[in-house]
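Sync notes, pocket subgroup
Present: LS, DG
LS reminded everyone that the earlier model was apo-only. Rerun requested with nicotinamide-adenine-dinucleotide included. Inputs:
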Amino acid sequence: MKKRIAVLAGDGIGPEIVAEAMKVLKAVAAKCGHEFIFDERLAGGAAYDATGDCLPQDTLSACKKADAVLLGAVGGPKWDGLPAQMRPEKRALLTLRKELGLFANLRPAIVWEPLKKASPLRGDIVGERLDILVVRELTGGVYFGEHSISADGLSAKDVMAYSVREIERISKVAFEAARKRRGLVTSVDKANVLATSRLWRETVERVHRESFGDVALEHMYVDNAAMQLLRVPGRFDTILTENMFGDILSDEASQITGSIGMLPSASVGDGGFGMYEPIHGSAPDIAGEGIANPLATILSAAMMLRMSFAMASEADMIEVAVGRALKGGARTADIGGEISTAAMGDAVAESI
Ligand SMILES: NC(=O)c1ccc[n+]([C@@H]2O[C@H](COP(=O)([O-])OP(=O)(O)OC[C@H]3O[C@@H](n4cnc5c(N)ncnc54)[C@H](O)[C@@H]3O)[C@@H](O)[C@H]2O)c1
């Protein structure tokens, strides 16, 4: 199969970790007879320095022409002084999500067996295997409602709004994902207080009834979900939730796994297109040292193969290779070792 991947390495450690993900993708292509065309473009502060815009038009066009986007990270202290609208995080990331119609954010939080000790939770709480997928709505809710402060400065409001259409499409993403996992969706809301949550619950139930009877569905209030994630994280399979609750719960879930350098993510829209990136930032404190952990980016590439290219066995191949590399003792500094970014990429690529 031939696929075009827009590659936006970005800033800080971005180029270092993305190079390792490309190395692993090349190993998969060679083994499985695929052709991946890497269309490398500038984004973030690097693009600003070269063109005066953190998301140049040719970068956006390349993303729109591609079958998927692989992103490193953008931003850093050098560009923190730019006006808000021009900053890498706002101009590049939010514009890409909006322009590419990416309304669903998927963040798997997996505790890898060899790294169990890295979890801040006790081994008996983490259990045998922890594998949670948070499906977060990305373009609605209170973050996108009207924000205002009164003229006298004594009150403020943020409007939280959801439409049935927005809830339906994110619900379908979660049910479809759960179908390929352990088949349980926990829909998280605050239906005892919020009208948007009551509409959320009603709509999720209808989508479930109409099309996903084979998947189990339960509802949970967000305060309880935050607690259960720490008490019995293994009870969760797929968590479906709105934008702000998902922002908070996905960070909580990710921390259970121990290292930010291990966690991939996917932002997807309709029709299989997606943008894949590690959940961490550009780590300016270690940029250029060749010590960053590339596994989150490599695992993001695996998500890309599975979700955008329907290459499930190739995605499995990468995940198995990561497991093997860890089992064999490969560790970057953040997970207690001292091998380089490139050596970690080599360990995974060789295992492919
Ligand atoms: N999606 C994105 O592009 C994205 C996301 C978050 C933050 N940012 C931006 O990144 C910059 C730095 O943000 P920050 O410092 O708050 O968060 P960060 O995630 O970049 O770093 C937090 C800490 O984790 C470490 N770390 C992160 N990734 C690592 C990896 N792969 N291997 C080893 N250690 C790793 C860093 O060294 C740092 O100590 C900021 O400009 C921020 O706005 C970008």
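DG: Residues 13, 17, 73-76, 89, 93, 260-261, 277, 280-286, 292-293, 296, 334 surround nicotinamide-adenine-dinucleotide (CB under 6 Å).
LS: The CA atoms of residues 187 and 240 lie 5 Å apart.
Action: DG to write up.
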